[in-house]
Write a structure and sequence with these properties.
By secondary structure, this protein is an alpha/beta fold. It folds into two domains: about 250 residues, Aspartate Aminotransferase, domain 2; about 130 residues, Aspartate Aminotransferase, domain 1 (Alpha-Beta Complex). It has a seven-stranded mixed beta sheet with strand order 1-7-6-5-4-2-3, sandwiched between helices. It has a five-stranded mixed beta sheet with strand order 8-9-12-11-10. The radius of gyration is 21 Å and the shape is globular. Bound molecules: pyridoxal-5'-phosphate. The site of pyridoxal-5'-phosphate has 14 residues, from helix 3.
Length: about 375
């Protein structure tokens, strides 16, 4: 893993976040990774090519970020991309024409769009299944199935997939497993430890944490997959820029502090919403009645900071969106400010209505990403907006 020799994997996560190998610049002692704002690198000797030669293939600032995420996820190598979708589409291009992939049914809308409008044209087939039922995953396998793509908790109804059960089955059948870990982050869930081959992130969300940059990350469990991802990243050229690599590292350092605070508030909010008469249903893995909560607890260290809830109708949802004052009304999540989004019109607008309804993404469903505001203020605001 890069030059990251001083770190010990026995350290606690909070310490790893701060002492990840890039916290002191070895040449000057500077307290952050230098910004190597260069596209190309001088060959001092033709006999001995430089470690970095061109920024698409590698850049020391981006490399520090890539080592950082590999270290946090416990993989062999990390890769930084221009967006979460750039990371996800690159991972899918490990597949070839004629291959088939099994995908979590209520997958992120952009992943659904990629699979159903672009990869299908390249003859990469996908089947969407309810992964809360392993039997359905097993039944979806075809002779040409090559991979399984998970997202747990899923978006936006927070359905739980048993990661170990799927990876054990996939490994026995020679399938590559991929998991979108955006909602949990490596602080709360480390899929590689559960056998997942490739972990993916929209680092635009909790990892960067401030709604100020777009980025994607991938981490490979094995050298072979790392080499193949490296080849794709360099060939496709969808890399993360130097400035954004630096900014993302800055954000990741406070991941635990932000997550701890936001999750504490999210638990309180989910509890409050579940007792509110205008709320029909609340989805949050920390609620006692959340389906498969015990599986989530076995594979994760927390419940995260995203709470979805159904106010019964599209009309009620629109009214709440107009009346709420504290949250940003927007797509996206995982930021210092609370973000209230309306999946039917925002993140899942790309999904046909009947498919959306089938997946529980009703017209009254809202998704609240809890930020760092005082939770009592958030509750007061929602109380008036729900009236
Ligand atoms: C936002 C998001 C993505 C896409 O990431 P971008 O950075 O917007 O490209 C993928 N998966 C999940 C779960 C997301 O929330």
């Amino acid at each position: 893993m890069g030059d990251n020799k001083k770190n010990s994997s026995a350290e606690k996560f909070a310490t790893k976040l701060i002492h990840f190998g890039g916290e002191i610049d070895p040449s000057t002692g500077a307290a952050s990774v230098p910004l190597y704002q260069a596209s190309t690198f001088h060959h001092f000797s033709l006999a001995d090519p430089p470690r970095y030669d061109y920024t698409r293939s590698g850049n020391p600032t981006r490399q520090a970020l890539e080592d950082y995420i590999a270290f946090l996820e416990g993989g062999v190598e990390g890769f930084a991309f221009a967006s979460g979708m750039a990371a996800i589409s690159t991972a899918f291009l490990l597949l070839s024409s004629g291959d088939h992939v099994i995908v979590t049914e209520d997958v992120y809308g952009g992943t659904y769009r990629l699979l159903t409008t672009i990869l299908n044209r390249l003859n990469i087939e996908s089947t969407f299944v309810d992964m809360t039922d392993l039997e359905k995953v097993v039944a979806a396998k075809k002779p040409n199935t090559k991979a399984v793509f998970m997202e747990t908790p899923s978006n936006p109804t927070l359905k739980i997939t048993d990661i170990k059960a799927v990876t054990a089955w996939a490994e026995a059948n020679g399938l590559i497993t991929m998991l979108d870990n955006t909602f949990m982050t490596p602080y709360l869930q480390r899929p590689i430890e559960l056998g997942v081959d490739i972990v993916l992130h929209s680092a635009t969300k909790f990892l960067s944490g401030h709604s100020d940059l777009l980025a994607g990350l991938a981490v490979a469990r094995t050298e072979d997959l790392a080499q193949r991802l490296k080849h794709l990243q360099n060939s496709l050229g969808n890399v993360l820029g130097v400035q954004d690599s630096w900014l993302l590292m800055r954000g990741i350092k406070t991941l635990k502090a932000r997550m701890d605070q936001a999750e504490k508030s999210a638990r309180r909010l989910a509890d409050w919403l579940s007792k509110h008469p205008s709320v029909v249903k609340v989805y949050y893995p920390g609620l006692p009645n959340h389906p498969r909560r015990e599986i989530h607890e076995q594979q994760s260290l927390g419940y995260g900071a995203v709470v979805s809830f159904d106010v019964g109708s599209g009309q009620a949802a629109r009214r709440l969106l107009q009346k709420a004052k504290i949250p940003l009304v927007a797509v996206s999540l995982g930021a210092v400010e609370s973000i209230l989004s309306y999946p039917a019109l925002m993140s899942h607008a790309a999904m046909p209505r009947e498919v959306r309804m089938e997946r529980g993404i009703s017209d009254g469903l809202l998704r609240f990403s809890v930020g760092l505001e005082d939770i009592e203020d958030i509750i007061k605001d929602l109380e008036q907006a729900l009236q």
